[in-house]
C-alpha cells in the first residue's frame, strides 16, 4: 500500500513539474513589442492599432502595444531602441539614418520592414469664407492666416516650416500680419477649424484625412492648391514625391473640380536592428499574409498588395531587417 502511495506521489510530482514547466514556458513565450503610430485621431494611429490586432490574432504570444508618435520623432525612437517598430515616412527616415536636418545625429540602427502601406499627402484646406484660391497666396498677400497644423515635432509640422521657407516667410511673420498658429493633434486641428479659431488647416495624412472629413460634414471647406513651382522646389530640395488629390477623394464632402497637384511621401514600417529576427519575421508574415485585412484598416491602405509592394520604387535605401528578408525570400517575393 505504501509503495502505491509513494508511486502515486512521484507521479503527481512529475505532473506538477511538467505543468509548472509548461506554464513557465508559456509565460516566457509572451513577448512585448511596441509600435509607434501617429497622433491620436489620425490615420497612422488607426493603422497601427489595426496592425496590432492582426499581428496578435496571428501570433498570440506577441503582445503589441500601440503608442502615439509622429513623423519626425518615430525614426529616432526606433533608432535608439525606445520603440521596436514604427510607422514612418521615407523622406525623414533617410535623414535620420544618415544624420541631417532636422536631426542632429545619425541613427544607424534603423532597419526597413516593409514599405507601401500608403502614400501620405500634404493637404491644405480652408473655410469657405477665406479670400484665397491657392496656398501660395498666404505668403504673396501676407494674409493673416489662422493656421491649425500638426505639432512642429512631426513631419507635418516640419513641412509647414519648409513650405513657407520657400517664400522666406516664418510662422512669426504670419503672426505679425495678424494671423495665428495652433499646433497639436489632428483631432484638435479639426476642432479649431470647425469652431472658427483657425481658418486654414494643414496636414500630412493619407487620403481621406479623418479630421478634414469630420469638419467637412458641418462646415463648407475648400482646398488651397500649391503652385507647380512650390511643389518642384520641395521635390528637388527635400525629396518629396509628386502626386494628386483625386476629385473623388472627399466625394460628398468637399467639391473638387479637377485633380489637385500635391506633395506626397511613401510610408512604411521600420524596426530597430536589435529586434530579433523571429519577431520581425512574424510581424512581416502576419501583415503580408493578411493583406486583405490590412487593406480594410483604412481607406488609404487599399494599395497594400504584396505583389505590388515589392515593385515600389519609392521606398528609399534603408537596409531591410534580416527577419523581414527571411519572410520575403520564403514567400518568393523579390524585395530588393
UniProtKB/TrEMBL annotation:
Q: Which domain of life is it from?
A: Bacteria
Signal peptide as annotated in the record: 1-29
Q: Does the keyword Signal apply?
A: yes
Q: InterPro entries attached here?
A: TRAP_TAXI (IPR011852)
Q: Which UniProt keywords apply?
A: Signal
What SUPFAM superfamilies would the database entry show?
Periplasmic binding protein-like II
Query: Is Signal one of the keywords?
Result: yes
NCBIfam families per the UniProt record, alphabetical: TRAP_TAXI
Q: Which PANTHER family match?
A: SLL1037 PROTEIN
What is this protein called in UniProt?
Answer: TAXI family TRAP transporter solute-binding subunit
Provide the taxonomic classification: Bacteria, Pseudomonadati, Pseudomonadota, Alphaproteobacteria, Sneathiellales
Amino acid at each position: 500500500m505504501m509503495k502505491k502511495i509513494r508511486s502515486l506521489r512521484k507521479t503527481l510530482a512529475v505532473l506538477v513539474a511538467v505543468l509548472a514547466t509548461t506554464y513557465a514556458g508559456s509565460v516566457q513565450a509572451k513577448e512585448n513589442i511596441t509600435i509607434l503610430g501617429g497622433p491620436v485621431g489620425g490615420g497612422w494611429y488607426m493603422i497601427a492599432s489595426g496592425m496590432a490586432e492582426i499581428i496578435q490574432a496571428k501570433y498570440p504570444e506577441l503582445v503589441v502595444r500601440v503608442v502615439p508618435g509622429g513623423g519626425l520623432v518615430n525614426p529616432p525612437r526606433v533608432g535608439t531602441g525606445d520603440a521596436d517598430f514604427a510607422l514612418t515616412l521615407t523622406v525623414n527616415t533617410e535623414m535620420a539614418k544618415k544624420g541631417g536636418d532636422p536631426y542632429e545625429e545619425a541613427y544607424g540602427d534603423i532597419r526597413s520592414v516593409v514599405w507601401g502601406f500608403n502614400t501620405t499627402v500634404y493637404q491644405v484646406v480652408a473655410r469657405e469664407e477665406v479670400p484665397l484660391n491657392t496656398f501660395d497666396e498666404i505668403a504673396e498677400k501676407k494674409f493673416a492666416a489662422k493656421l491649425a497644423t500638426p505639432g512642429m515635432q512631426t513631419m507635418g509640422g516640419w513641412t509647414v516650416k519648409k513650405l513657407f521657407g520657400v517664400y522666406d516667410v516664418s510662422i512669426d511673420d504670419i503672426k505679425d500680419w495678424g494671423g495665428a498658429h495652433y499646433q497639436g493633434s489632428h483631432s484638435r486641428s479639426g476642432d479649431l477649424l470647425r469652431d472658427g479659431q483657425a481658418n486654414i488647416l494643414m496636414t500630412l495624412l493619407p487620403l481621406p484625412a479623418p479630421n478634414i472629413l469630420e469638419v467637412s460634414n458641418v462646415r463648407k471647406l475648400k482646398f488651397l492648391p500649391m503652385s507647380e513651382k512650390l511643389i518642384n522646389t520641395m521635390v528637388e530640395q527635400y525629396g518629396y514625391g509628386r502626386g494628386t488629390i483625386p476629385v473623388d477623394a472627399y466625394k460628398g464632402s468637399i467639391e473638387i473640380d479637377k485633380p489637385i497637384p500635391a506633395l506626397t511621401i511613401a510610408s512604411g514600417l521600420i524596426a530597430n536592428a536589435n529586434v530579433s529576427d523571429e519577431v520581425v519575421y512574424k510581424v512581416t508574415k502576419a501583415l503580408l499574409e493578411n493583406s486583405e485585412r490590412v487593406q480594410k484598416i483604412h481607406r488609404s491602405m487599399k494599395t497594400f498588395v504584396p505583389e505590388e509592394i515589392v515593385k515600389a520604387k519609392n521606398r528609399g535605401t534603408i537596409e531591410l531587417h534580416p527577419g523581414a528578408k527571411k519572410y520575403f525570400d520564403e514567400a518568393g517575393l523579390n524585395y530588393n
